[in-house]
Design a protein that fits this description.
By secondary structure, this protein is mainly alpha-helical. Helices cover 61% and strands 5% of the residues. It contains nine helices and two strands; from the N terminus they run αββαααααααα. Strands 1-2 form a two-stranded antiparallel sheet. α3 packs across α4 and α3 packs across α5 (97-108). The protein starts with a helix and ends in a 13-residue tail after the last helix. The relative contact order is 0.09. Residues 67-168 form the HTH araC/xylS-type domain. Pfam families: HTH_18. Keywords: DNA-binding, Transcription, Transcription regulation. This is HTH araC/xylS-type domain-containing protein.
Length: 180
């Protein structure tokens, strides 16, 4: 689940299936203790709606890291002295960055750094599509060292230049759950 609408959709699906969710948050759902959880029965309902049931601890941690990295982007944009990615994640999870990185890489088949770059580029696409900021302003907000660095990374990830992206009438963007 990557947004409030996803949370509500999962809550609604669980209720329709006869479960009593007490808490539904990004990446997890808690059920009333009187209702026995049956992931095998719930999984097809969730998959039909485009969700997956993550039963393994590594899968759950990976999804929690992804949600935290989305929050980290906002931290980057708004913090006067932003934390490093590793400091942000170790504060969030009370675990070493090395452990988080190994679990994430093994589960997502992608490093945290590469996932964060993809996430940043999707945010850059969003900002570019609004047409309100220059590339330098976007680079500054996203904590790139320069507009040129952002432009190079944009081309590396998307296979096209920022100018080409801007010329497209309907630029293709990825949903957050398609990044990995």
């Amino acid at each position: 689940m990557v947004c409030p609408r996803c949370v509500e959709a999962v809550r609604h699906l669980l209720e329709q299936a006869g479960y009593k969710p007490t808490s539904v948050q990004l990446g997890q759902a808690q059920l009333d203790q009187t209702t026995p959880a049956d992931p095998v029965a719930v999984a097809p309902l969730l998959r039909e709606a485009g969700f997956d049931v993550l039963t393994g601890r590594a899968e759950q941690l990976t999804e929690q890291i992804k949600a935290s990295l989305a929050e980290y982007l906002e931290h980057l944009r708004t913090a006067r002295m932003p934390l490093t990615t590793s400091a942000f994640l170790t504060d969030r999870f009370a675990a070493t960055y090395s452990h988080l990185s190994k679990v994430f890489s093994r589960t997502a088949n992608l490093t945290i750094e590469k996932y964060l770059i993809r996430l940043k580029i999707e945010r850059v696409k969003e900002m570019l599509s609004y047409g309100e900021l220059t590339l330098s302003e976007i680079a500054d907000q996203m904590r790139y060292s320069s507009g040129q660095h952002l432009s190079n990374q944009f081309r590396q990830v998307t296979g096209r230049s920022v100018s080409e992206f801007r010329r497209e009438l309907m630029p293709k963007r990825l949903s957050l759950d398609e990044l990995a």
